[in-house]
Amino acid sequence: MFDRILQGLNWLFYILALSLVLGGGAVRYDVERDYYYDYTRGIKFDFPSWIADASWIKVQQVALGSPYYSDRGTRKMIVIDYLRQMDRVFQVEWELSQIYSNPEIPDPEAASVDLRARLNALYAEQRRLAPFAESILEEQVSVALAEAGLTSGGQPLPRPLYHISPLPMALIVSPREVIRQDENISLLADLPVDEQAALEERIAEELDRSALVVPIGGVGIYPTMGMRSIHLPWIVDTIAHEWMHNYLTWHPLGSNYGTTPELRTMNETVASIVGTEIGRIVQKRYYPESLASERPPVDLLSLSEGMPSLEAPPFDFNTEMRETRLRVDELLADGKVDEAEAYMEARRAIFWENGYAIRKLNQAYFAFHGAYADVPGGAAGVDPVGAAVRALREQSDSLADFVHTIMWLDSFEALEAMVD
Questions:
Q1: 24 has pLDDT over 50
Q2: Domain limits at 224?
Q3: What are phi and psi of 127, to 5 degrees?
Q4: Within 10 A of 81 (CB to CB), how many other CB atoms are there?
Q5: Cβ proximity of 286 and 405 under 8 Å
Q6: Is 161 domain-assigned?
Q7: Statement: residue 200 has pLDDT above 60
Q8: Is the peptide bond before 223 cis (omega within 30 degrees of 0)?
Q9: 253 within some domain
Q10: pLDDT higher than 90, residue 261
Q11: Start-to-end Cα distance in the chain
Q12: Does 286 reside within a domain?
């Protein structure tokens, strides 16, 4: 036991040291200019406290022992049990929200006593399972990274430490006359939607900027953050995606993440490609059944599931969003800002009618979502950066060859020169 405690303390120093170096990851939570202070005062996410708490959880996992010594089948069942437990939590949370939303229930608190007690019991079981499931998934991703050649001495550096928790919201700010992410400020995870909308409108009216508060799926601090989900392929993809951000931080591409919009897109596209490929390795090796019954991951754009008419042609979200982005770019290039904003609102209604509940479609929306260009089209529109990154991956001999080439680049021009 004493040896485990010493090992845990060693890990604590290791994690805290890396947190100081990698704490920014892909998130620049300290770069907002002073004039946004009045807008975000009291609602900014506390990253230092989160890092300290998550680091301590990881240390406890090491000190108390992990399920690494159990057999492969037992490890798999621990992860599956955790996902089933999360599914139960989501179901009861939904039932609770229905009670509080029902105008025919005069006293929701009294009506939900038993349900809240059940939810608390589910939370307790979830907290018990989470450290073990996280440790197993971290180890499985480490094995996949080694298989892909993304290790040093057989071990990924840094270790892909990952903690599931409620994630901060991101305040994205863009000019109105051009699509460009100028600010990405992390806000409280539970910021009510009415306060999100009020913040966006205040910035729009007082600063004449396009603003949007968006949910995110992960944060590349250290340990990395991931949102709650029951979709295993998405979880392992996210672990590898955020690990890639931390890995790139040591190299020119990652250290220049926020230097230009092109470099930001390069970083996010590389991380998305790595997340997808490493995630597939994990699935194939440990959860092959998930490949046969794969379903779409958690959709951060919408939590609704539209039921399209059998008579109507299928609605292709990616194609329709690409068409929207192209037209908006044209209007903004012609200086027709008001017309572009009216067009985006009209298009938002079309997406709503087809089952995609996009709360606000504006320049900030495209500035944020357009950086994830690992697949053609979508919010990126005509995106030469994402296309160039994908082309480099195609002409690379392996995933490791691709990463070890692009991580040394510090400009889009350097990438263009390398792509056939």
A1: no
A2: 2-168+216-292
A3: -65, -30
A4: 14
A5: no
A6: yes
A7: yes
A8: yes
A9: yes
A10: no
A11: 57
A12: yes
Contacts of 141 (CB under 8 A, 6+ apart): 156, 160, 162, 236, 239, 240, 243, 278, 282
How wide is the angle at C-alpha 370 spanned by C-alphas 189 and 244, nearest 5°?
A: 70
How many domains in the chain?
Answer: 1
Give every CB contact of residue 292 below 8 A, 6+ residues apart in sequence.
none
DSSP E strands, 133-272: 162-164, 169-175, 183-187, 209-214, 218-219, 224-226
For residue 100, what are its two tokens? Answer: 């509080």
Question: Which pair of structure tokens corresponds to residue 198?
Answer: 């009020």
Take residue 252 and report the two structure tokens written for it. 């020119």
Tokens read off for 162: 């990952």
Quick check: is 186 in a domain? Answer: no
* Closest CA relative to residue 279, chosen from 334, 356, 226, 347: 226
Q: How high is the pLDDT of residue 171?
A: 95
Q: Which residue has the tokens 């994630």?
A: 167
Does 14 have pLDDT greater than 70?
no
Q: Is 311 helix (H, G, I), strand (E, B) or coil?
A: coil
Task: Please classify residue 22 by burial: count the beta carbons closer than 10 Å to its beta carbon, then call 0-12 exposed, 13-18 middle and 19+ buried.
Answer: buried
Tell me: pLDDT of 193 over 90.
no
Which residues lie across from 413 on neighbouring strands? none
Structure tokens at 255: 């250290």
Helix (H, G, I), strand (E, B) or coil at 40: helix
Longest dimension (CA), the chain: 69
Tokens of residue 72, six digits: 């492969």
As given in the structure block, the two tokens for residue 211 are: 């603003």
Burial class (CB in 10 A: 0-12, 13-18, 19+), 137: buried
| Residue 152 DSSP symbol | B
What amino acid occupies position 6? L
Q: State the number of CA atoms in the 13 A half-sphere of 48 facing the CB.
A: 2
3-state DSSP assignment of residue 220: coil
Q: What's the pLDDT band for 131 if we cut at 50, 70, 90? A: confident
